[in-house]
Amino acid sequence: MSLTVHLSYLLALLVAGLAQGIKSSLRGQDPGPQPLELKEVFTLFQIQYNRSYSHPAEHARRLDIFARNLAKAQQLQEEDLGTAEFGVTPFSDLTEEEFGQLYGHQSVAGEAPSVSQKVGSEEWGQSVPRTCDWRKKAGIISSIRNQQNCNCCWAMAAAGNIEALWAIKYHESLEVSVQELLDCNRCGNGCKGGFVWDAFITVLNNSGLASDKDYPFKGNSEPHRCRAKKRKKVAWIQDFIMLQPCEQSIARYLATQGPITVTINMKLLQQYQKGVIKATPTTCDPRFVDHSVLLVGFGKSKSVEGRQAEAISSRSRPHPRHSIPYWILKNSWGANWGEEVSVIYWGREQGRTDLSPPTGPDVP
Question: Suppose 191 and one of 150, 210, 281, 321 were both cysteines; which one would form an S-S bond, judging by CB atoms 3.0 to 4.6 Å apart?
Answer without folding.
Answer: 150
